[in-house]
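Q:
Got a chain?
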Amino acid sequence: MQIRNFKSVLPLLLFTTVLFADGDPQLSVTIGSRLFDATAGEELYKSSCQGCHMPDGKGAQGAGMYPSLVKNVRLMSAKATVETVTNGLRGMPAFREYLEDAQIVEVVNYVRTNFGNNFKDVASVSDIPK
């Protein structure tokens, strides 16, 4: 089976990720508005990213190709990474409707300073595309 409209299964995928994520049992999901209450980058990664990019950030292949975030030079630009998370890119969905601006910045800064990444510049809310 091939999923052509990823956005239609995103809420289910995200809910499943939160349900089975190792970590804070206080994370909550609210379908219909913003999905995530978490505010820290690591919590947000676990609840919104690791379902595709895996807990270790190494990505996966299966129903789709989910790129590795480990030592990923494509994360070099904080602004470009914020734009990707906000608006999506190719098969990655846009998280604009699921995360607040501050949450997007937190998860971007977390990914850019973990998984073997050590980028010094910091993303900010002003990097969110309008």
